[in-house]
Each structure stands twice: as structure tokens, then as C-alpha cells.
Write a structure and sequence with these properties.
Elements lengths: L2 H8 L4 E3 L21 E4 L5 H7 L5 E4 L1
Parallel strand pairs: 1-2, 2-3
Length: 64
């Protein structure tokens, strides 16, 4: 297990910062599954379809 994944596993809360252009794209490096992420912080240019889809998860979306 990588050190990043171990840190996530041991954390009480997990925050991820990603700009809106990263949503909806396949990535070759995975940090964690969405169910282990508590908060995602992104810019306010995120498409409304992504915002709606987060309402169905336990991950909180923070737009700034």
C-alpha cells in the first residue's frame, strides 16, 4: 500500500482539491475511491450535472 493510501486510511476526514476541468476524465493515478473522500474542493465552474450527482453520495462538494 502506498503511503498516500495509508494516510487516507488512517485519517478521520479526507479533503481533495481539484479544479473543475478534472471532473469527468479518466485518470491513470487513483488516490482513493469516492466513498473514502469526505470533501472535494473545486472552483465554481463545475458543470451542474456533476454538482447534482454529488447529492447522491456522502462526499461533500465545496465550490469556491
Amino acid at each position: 500500500m502506498s503511503s498516500g493510501k495509508k494516510i487516507i486510511e488512517l485519517s478521520q476526514e479526507v479533503y481533495v482539491a481539484a479544479d473543475s476541468t478534472k471532473f469527468g476524465k479518466d485518470v491513470t493515478i487513483g488516490i482513493s475511491s469516492l466513498d473514502k473522500i469526505d470533501y472535494i474542493i473545486t472552483d465554481d465552474h463545475l458543470h451542474k450535472d456533476f454538482i447534482s450527482s454529488f447529492k447522491e453520495t456522502d462526499t461533500h462538494l465545496i465550490l469556491s
